[in-house]
Amino acid sequence: MQTTEIGQGIRTFLVDNFLFGHNEKLQDEEPLLGNVVDSTGVVELVVFLQERFAITVEDDEVTTENLGSVRSATAFVEKKLLKKG
């Protein structure tokens, strides 16, 4: 799966579920927590990533480094998919 597909999937999920279709409000580097999602939203994002990309997100991987923005979440999913191989 290509980076653009992963990023687009994440963006679509966030726009549809948290921004009510207002995709202009979502920038790739914008911090998600507090701007787009709250703590419950982070859980929903993790569930989405696991189901959509067939990966496992461990508790210690739920960090702002991995899931802090669309760009970091995309890179995180890419890394998980490469390890899964």
Concise synopsis of the structure shown:
This protein is mostly helical.
Structure report:
With 85 residues, the chain is an all-alpha fold. It has a single domain (3-84), classed as ACP-like (Non-ribosomal Peptide Synthetase Peptidyl Carrier Protein, Chain A, Orthogonal Bundle). 59% of the residues lie in helices and 0% in strands. The chain has helices at residues 3-18, 39-53, 64-67, 70-84. Helix 1 (3-18) crosses helix 2 (39-53) and helix 1 (3-18) crosses helix 4 (70-84). It starts with a helix and ends with a helix. The model has no long low-confidence stretch (mean pLDDT 93).
Number of strands: 0
Assign the structural class, choosing from mainly alpha, mainly beta, alpha/beta, alpha+beta, or little secondary structure.
mainly alpha
Shape: globular
Number of domains: 1
Count helical runs: 4
In the CATH hierarchy, what is the class? Mainly Alpha
- What is the arithmetic mean of pLDDT? 93
The CATH topology is given as: Non-ribosomal Peptide Synthetase Peptidyl Carrier Protein, Chain A
Strand content: under 5%
The helix-strand sequence is HHHH
What is the radius of gyration computed over CA atoms, rounded to a whole number of angstroms?
Answer: 12 Å
The parts where pLDDT drops under 50 for at least 5 residues are: none
Second CATH tier, the architecture: Orthogonal Bundle
Largest sheet: none
How many angstroms does the end-to-end distance come to? 11 Å
Helical percent range? 55-70%
User: CATH superfamily, called what?
Assistant: ACP-like
